[in-house]
Design brief:
About 15% of the residues lie in helices and about 25% in strands. It is α+β, with helices and mostly antiparallel strands and about 400 residues long.
Length: about 400
């Protein structure tokens, strides 16, 4: 929020994290602190979580990442309430910061939520009304630094949004802030997005409209260990420095709805996450609307595996290498239906699809009237490409061209 951050490390939930081996860091944003030990006043002036505060958080993260006892492959940020304004701003404006995950506890997404516009009596924040009550250019410019939804989409780590059935600040039934943050993150291509912990059961990378996610029952305050539990859960994704494959369609984690008139661009990336040069099996494949699996064999051939994965062959065998962003397909006219496209690596280089296996998936849906293809199809790095007039057997290897 707008309070002092440094003294919070003495709270039980953060002491518990330290007991679990975490290095816990709290800081006072510019101008905050009372000067007493453990709550020293930071230089600068109060910025109400704008760019100055965000820049300060960036500096703290960089300083902590440079410490010799910090695992830079497992750094996380946790924010509470209005703190997401600073957190999302820093991580979105500086996406190269080495932050693997963000835990956001019911933070406001925009000026309306921040000023309690949906309550009977709205308030000013740092002397500013929301942009509806005061639509002046000066007020809009001030809020442009302080609306978290504007920046969350540029974050490159895992994003856990926490939302209880009864919000800690908003009126009953107001969840627009959580929906805006979640949907913006998913649509913008944040690699991993979910509402609430795994015990609640919400899926990853799903947008919500008429259907809502499952909320945490009651209030966040009903769960004294909630912060501790959720930070531990997120950190567990990166405990063993596992590789992180990623596949996107039109820069989205999906599900992506398209029509035959839309251009489809598919990109893959891989973060070895400390496993550079480790031998691995690489796998690329897709499941089609008519039930067949296809797999890709490097450098340029796709094969039909039939209805099961029993006959799938690895794409490539070799060391894990960093891939920042590589376009593997740019096409118009995807055949009708729903496609599940996978990019996986396993760390047991034996040509068998086995554990430890790390995968990412994107779903692409052609929204036209369903129909089966009337001629064979080619898979190019995880996407079906319809070929009119192809008359040879489907099992014949098909050249798709080597990516440049």
């Amino acid at each position: 929020g707008l309070g002092n951050g440094a003294p919070m490390i003495n709270q039980p939930e953060y002491q518990a994290l330290a007991e679990h081996g975490f290095i816990v860091v709290g800081f006072n944003a510019p101008g905050r602190g009372d000067g007493r030990p453990g709550n020293l006043q930071s230089g600068g002036e109060e910025d109400c979580n704008g760019f100055a505060g965000q820049n300060a958080l960036k500096s703290v993260i960089e300083h902590v990442a440079a410490l010799p006892n910090v695992n830079t492959g497992n750094i996380g940020v946790q924010t509470g309430s209005y703190g997401i304004t600073m957190g999302a701003g820093a991580l979105g404006r500086f996406p190269d910061l080495p932050v693997k995950y963000l835990v956001d506890m019911e933070g406001p997404s925009n000026s309306l939520i921040t000023t309690f516009y949906y309550k009977p009596q709205e308030i000013q924040v740092c002397g500013h009304w929301n942009t509806i009550t005061d639509p002046s250019p000066e007020n809009i410019a001030w809020w442009s630094e302080r609306e978290a939804y504007r920046y969350i989409g540029n974050f490159r780590g895992y994003y856990l949004r926490v939302q209880a059935e009864i919000d800690h600040a908003q009126p009953p039934g107001i969840y627009t802030h959580t929906l805006e943050m979640n949907n913006t993150a998913v649509v913008s291509g944040v690699p991993w997005v979910r509402v609430n912990g795994q015990e609640i059961g919400n899926p990853v990378n799903v947008t919500y409209d008429t259907t809502l996610p499952l909320w945490l029952p009651g209030r966040m305050a009903d769960y004294p260990t909630l912060v501790t539990d959720y930070i531990i859960e997120m950190a567990s994704f990166f405990d063993s420095a596992t590789p992180v494959p990623d596949i996107k369609a039109n820069d989205s984690n999906g599900p992506l709805n398209i029509t035959p008139q839309d251009i489809l661009s598919v990109k893959i990336s891989l973060d070895p996450n400390g496993n550079e040069e480790t031998g691995a099996d690489w796998w690329v494949g897709a499941y089609t609307p008519w039930g067949d699996w296809y797999y890709y064999v490097y450098p340029d051939q796709w094969h039909n595996a039939g209805l099961t994965l029993n006959d799938i062959f690895h794409t490539y065998q070799g060391p894990l290498l960093p891939i920042s962003s590589f376009e593997v397909l740019n096409i118009q006219g995807l055949p009708t239906g729903s496609y599940e496209v996978y990019f996986c690596v396993d760390m047991n280089m034996n040509g068998v699809l086995d554990d430890p296996l790390y995968c990412d998936e994107v779903k692409v849906i052609d929204t036209t009237e369903p129909s089966l293809p009337d001629s064979p199809a080619v898979l190019y790095f995880g996407i079906m490409v319809h070929l009119e007039g192809w008359e040879d057997d489907m099992e014949k290897p098909i050249s798709s061209g080597t990516p440049n």
